[in-house]
Specification:
Layout lengths: L1 E4 L8 E6 L5 H15 L3 E6 L13 E7 L7 H14 L4 E7 L7 H18 L5 E6 L1 E2 L6 H13 L10 E2 L3 H9 L4
Parallel strand pairs: 2-3, 2-4, 4-5, 5-6
Antiparallel strand pairs: 1-3, 7-8
Length: about 190
């Protein structure tokens, strides 16, 4: 488990950030979230869901869980963590960050599908997130194989995006994420 900071006087609120990241953008988003919370004087521990099996979740006051959507699903290790800890998670303030490229767009049907993916994930695990937020991800061509690079460029082209071969592009709205975290946990 990686302790990022314990700031402030007295007993600061302890926040767990548990994530699953495929190409690294979700991990980057969680690192940013940790920095924002630490700046507010909170104590933050951040760990990948695959390493969280033995975490003493009851020692935390709140939790952020984050995963990225790929082919209509979030990572199985995050689902396993949520299922295993649903009871404890349901008794604390939680924030569910669902990372996807769809969140960068304005298509209402795609956004509704993203809402359904998040709801199905939560329902299957028994966890009731206190708040769900969709966060735009990134194209990480350096992390893709040849077939996936082609598929991702085709998806970008369908959305009117021109992306040069091998060019990474980040869509995360860092200012909006900072504003969200400013008021969380309430």
């Amino acid at each position: 488990m990686q302790r990022l900071s314990e700031a402030g006087q007295g007993a600061p609120r302890r926040i767990l950030i548990c994530y699953a990241s495929t190409e690294g953008q979700t991990r980057k988003i969680c690192r940013f979230a940790a920095e924002q919370l630490i700046a507010k004087g909170l104590s933050v521990e951040m760990l990948p869901a695959g390493d969280a099996a033995e975490v003493a979740l009851a020692a935390f006051d709140a939790a952020i869980l984050a995963g990225s959507v790929h082919l209509g699903r979030l990572q199985p290790e995050l689902a396993e963590f949520c299922s295993e800890h649903a009871g404890t998670l349901n008794r604390m303030p939680t924030l569910f960050l669902v990372v996807s490229l769809v969140a960068a767009g304005n298509d209402p049907d795609e956004r509704a599908a993203l809402d359904r993916i998040a709801a199905a994930f939560a329902s299957a695990s028994g966890w009731r997130p206190g708040r769900v937020e969709h966060v735009a991800g990134a194209f990480r061509f350096g992390a893709y194989g040849p077939l996936r690079r082609w598929a991702m460029r085709w998806i970008a082209w369908r959305k009117g995006q021109r992306i040069a071969s091998g060019q990474d592009r980040e869509y995360t709205d860092w200012a909006a994420l900072a504003a969200l975290l400013k008021g969380w946990p309430a």
